[in-house]
Write a structure and sequence with these properties.
binds 2-(3,6-dihydroxyphenyl)acetic acid, six-stranded antiparallel β-sheet, HgmA_N, nine-stranded antiparallel β-sheet, homogentisate 1,2-dioxygenase activity, about 5% helix, 2 domains, Homogentisate 1,2-dioxygenase, single chain, globular, metal-binding, binds fe (ii) ion
């Protein structure tokens, strides 16, 4: 199973049949009196039935058993997932986390047990807001599947390949790729080594591609580079656990068959992956530093136009050519929250201290920008065309909401770097004008 097949496109109407059951998709209707091969028809709705056509999302799944064939849910008390944003007092300080730990080798932890919430805002009950989590695991989910009833998960692996077995088929996701598993979709994560990464969860709308405006019809993340799996069922009648995240808490129920029993499906509500190396980078070729929104891969919009509950932005390898310009990120204060992670390499504004597998949070209006070394180097360097962020990939989850840090993020993970502010302490006074 190494040559997985994928369907290409973003937001397309796809259809897929497992080749072991030709003609398993009903023709020209969704719900025939009897489905081919004795399958059950089941609709998975990702939008209100009545949502406008351009936002209307649903898929039809043709499966061996309908999903309702399961026992009752009970609380599942593992990991540190939460949507309680009042665990600790607010703290506007710049925050930097050292790389998060892998599980110790004498402990077995699967993906769902290994999710820890760092920060977030809003309420899954109101379908508004987001959460940022990190995961760290060393065991595959065996006869266990997970689904999130609270929203969509954008998963950013940092170490280790994830084999995402979903109801729609199988996706392999390696570091420098991302995947999105949308609300309600069942999946199971298989790993082959200690694995770690980041998760952006959005409670409200689904992710969309940013508008391109004057860029034109092509560029940034192109729709054809988004890949969706093909139908691949298993007919296994054994005990399976279904873990659900519901209103910020985990629950577990059992059933006597595999949830990955979908023989055929069609629709526009699907899981997908994207390779960040396919991002077509657009940037300034004259002077000045573009705002990082120019690197937006996916956005989850709020009701306010042009304002995101969460943007997923990357800092990809590229040429830097601006003339007469301080080329790294400018010093700034932002009305948005900025959570950053590093997949590999180094981030141009902070060559030390911000490490792969770690993170930073610069909260609303909290000042930040290049560290002392970066400022001094970039103020003096000869402005030849040069590659930046080569062999590197940083990213940002940027949100219009104020993010609260959880108890795990602030205390229990023990990764906060108390010396983060020192990186700006040596900034000198270079002022040459009169005193008053
Ligand atoms: O703070 C950061 O490092 C992220 C960032 C990058 C950039 O190029 C411009 C603004 C910005 O917030
Ligand atoms: Fe910033």
């Amino acid at each position: 199973m190494n040559d997985l097949k994928y369907l290409s496109g973003f937001g397309s109407e796809f259809s897929s049949e497992d080749p072991r059951c030709p003609n398993s998709l009903p023709k020209s209707q969704n719900s025939p009196q009897k489905c081919p091969y004795g399958l059950y028809a089941e609709q998975l709705s990702g939008s209100a039935f009545t949502a406008p056509r351009h936002e209307n999302k649903r898929s039809w799944l043709y499966r061996i058993y309908p999903s309702v064939c399961h026992k009752r849910f009970k609380p599942f008390l593992k990991g540190n997932i939460t949507s309680d944003w009042d665990e600790i007092k607010p703290d506007p300080n710049q925050m930097r986390w050292n790389p998060f730990d892998f599980p110790s080798s004498n402990e077995k932890r699967d993906f769902v047990e290994g999710i820890n919430t760092i920060c977030g805002a809003g309420d899954p009950k109101l379908k508004l807001g987001l959460a940022v989590h990190v995961y760290s695991c060393n065991d595959s989910m065996k006869r266990r599947a997970f689904y999130n009833s609270d929203g969509d998960l954008l998963i950013v692996p940092q170490t280790g390949k994830l084999r995402m077995k979903t109801e729609f088929g199988i996706l392999d996701v390696v570091p420098n790729e991302i995947c999105v598993i949308q609300q309600g979709m069942r999946f199971s994560v298989q790993v082959t080594e200690a694995s770690r990464g980041y998760i952006l969860e959005v409670y409200g709308r689904h992710f969309s591609l940013p508008d391109l405006g004057p860029i034109g019809a092509n560029g940034l993340a192109n729709p054809r580079d988004f890949l969706t799996p093909v139908a691949c069922y298993e007919d296994v009648e054994e005990n399976f656990e279904i873990v659900a995240k519901y209103q910020g808490n985990l629950f577990l129920c059992e059933q006597n068959h595999s949830p990955f029993d979908v023989v055929a499906w069609h629709g526009n509500y699907v899981p997908y992956k994207y390779n960040l190396a396919n991002f077509m980078v657009i940037n300034s070729v004259s002077f000045d530093h573009c705002d990082p929104s120019i690197f937006t891969v996916l956005t989850c919009q709020s009701e306010r136009s042009g304002t995101a509950v969460a943007d997923f932005v990357i800092f990809p390898p590229r040429w830097s050519v601006q003339e007469n310009t301080f080329r790294p990120p400018y010093y700034h204060r932002n009305c948005m929250s900025e959570f950053m992670g590093l997949i590999h390499g180094r981030y141009e504004a902070k060559e030390g201290g911000f490490l792969p597998g770690g993170a930073t949070l610069h909260s609303i209006m909290t000042p930040h920008g290049p560290d002392v070394n970066c400022f001094e180097k970039a103020s003096e360097e000869e402005l030849k065309p040069c590659r930046i962020a080569d062999e590197s990939q940083g990213f940002m989850f940027e949100s219009c909401l104020g993010l609260a840090v959880t108890k795990w993020g602030a205390q229990e993970c023990q990764k906060l770097d108390p010396n983060y502010n020192k990186c700006w302490e040596g900034l000198k006074k270079n002022f040459t004008g009169p005193k008053n």
